[in-house]
Amino acid sequence: MPEMPEVQGLVDFLAARAVGRTVTRVSVAAIAALKTFDPPVTALQDARITAVARHGKFIDLALGDELHLIFHLAKAGWLRWYDELPTTLIKPGRSPIAVRVALDDGSGFDLTEAGTKKSLAVYVARHPGDVPGIARLGPDPLDPAFTREAFAALLAGRRTQIKGLLRDQGLIAGIGNAYSDEILHAAKMSPYAPAANLDDADVDRLYDAMQGTLREAIDEAAGKPPADLKDAKRRGMQVHARRGEACPVCGDTVRSVFFADRSLEYCPTCQTGGKVLADRRLSRLLK
Known about the structure:
Elements: H1 4-17, E1 23-28, E2 49-55, E3 58-63, E4 67-72, E5 77-82, E6 97-103, E7 108-113, E8 121-125, H2 132-135, H3 148-155, H4 162-167, H5 177-186, H6 200-221, H7 226-236, E9 255-258, E10 263-266, H8 268-271
Antiparallel strand pairs: 1-6, 2-3, 3-4, 4-8, 5-7, 6-7, 9-10
Helix pairs in contact: 1-6, 1-7, 5-6
């Protein structure tokens, strides 16, 4: 799933290429991906793109004074850019392409989604806050207002395990499964640690790890075209999706905990005092 650094990379890419261009056509091939009907998608035609922004993991193209084309790439969605947009007809149900946006200079992009579970979401809105997922977002972790003190206040009294808290978009916007693994590894912290049990030194370490991990990943994504962002993300991972490999910090074997639809990765030596975490479905540590 694209997370904050990759989404910011896409935002920067679109800002450099699409701002100032006029939308000539929007073709919807997967009607289930379009979550709104008012304004209609046809309202985007002949509108000029004036800005591109990020809200958590949502990408927001502002068009004129009153319209926004907003999309969330979900687990298996992506953006495919073309300097020269293909002229081939999109056949609904016969292609991974869900939406195609054509621009006045012949360029444009497709929103695609792989797999059978379709979660890509596209909205045409008058204001970003009209999108329910954006309205519910917590603060952006790299917002200057999200200080160490604000982070500590968010953690205080919460019995939630820290892995789940970092992934909760209503508490902190933009962090998903991959970067929460990376942040916790950098902080040398168990994913199962209750947020309320963290002392001041833990909070300092976790806040610094969150800031450093995300800023480094955003820097790595900067300037890369969409086709290169996924590989850049994979190369930067220390533990996520590296089960069975050696931890780059201590050399221990990276382990996984499996859930119904995802897994987490961690280093026992760096994060859990050498203890191997049981499968989460057992809800306990192996003794």
